[in-house]
Amino acid sequence: MENRMRRNNLRLLKVPEELEKGDPKGLVVCLIKQGTQIEEEEEVLLKDIQRVHRDPFRKTTNRDKPRKILVYFHTYAIKERILSMALKNKIVSAEGIDFEIRSDLSTTTLNRQWERGKRIDILKRLGATAQLKFPAALKVMANNKMYIFREIEK
């Protein structure tokens, strides 16, 4: 349910707070334009941004790590289009900084993905091929057999 509410949102990570200068929306538009090499005719997509703000809470006391920027779009399709442009490169560069653009997912979903990611790394070290399948299944190929796990046990 929570992910459904967040489906039109993006998160920008590792963007220094001093770049903002009181205009977070202007900063985000500039970063997305430069970072995704968006075409001039596609700049209309950026008008779909509803609002932008920093994550109000700091989960860590490490002040060197900037807070995430939350970007709310009017439509899911526009958000997905911008995300797909950004995912061509894992790290996006603009304004002399490297940052990441990701979907805004709930903490529960992020933790589940992280747990599965740890298991995928272990399986790869053992010589198996593993990947995440939508929505949250783990597909493993080992010894010429395919296994699909819907739940991960500790």
UniProtKB/TrEMBL annotation:
It comes from the Eukaryota. Gene3D superfamilies: L1 transposable element, RRM domain. Residues 7-96 form the L1 transposable element RRM domain. InterPro entries: L1_RRM_dom, Transposase_22. Pfam families: Transposase_22 (PF02994). PANTHER family: L1 TRANSPOSABLE ELEMENT-RELATED. This is L1 transposable element RRM domain-containing protein. It comes from Pleurodeles waltl (Iberian ribbed newt).
